[in-house]
Amino acid sequence: xxxxxxxxxxxxxxxxxxxxxxxxxxxxxxxxxxxxxxxxxxxxxxxxxxxxxxxxx
Length: 57
What we know:
57 residues; alpha+beta; 3-stranded antiparallel beta sheet; 1 helix
């Protein structure tokens, strides 16, 4: 299982639980709170990170 990373959003210290595939930018590994907000934009696809199920709240 890969090592758990922190959210890629600046200033966030939560654990990353979702990989966002963003067509106009690089992929981001973010916490569930940031993922919920960001996937509202058209074209962004969310993929759960393996082993991060306990961080899905």
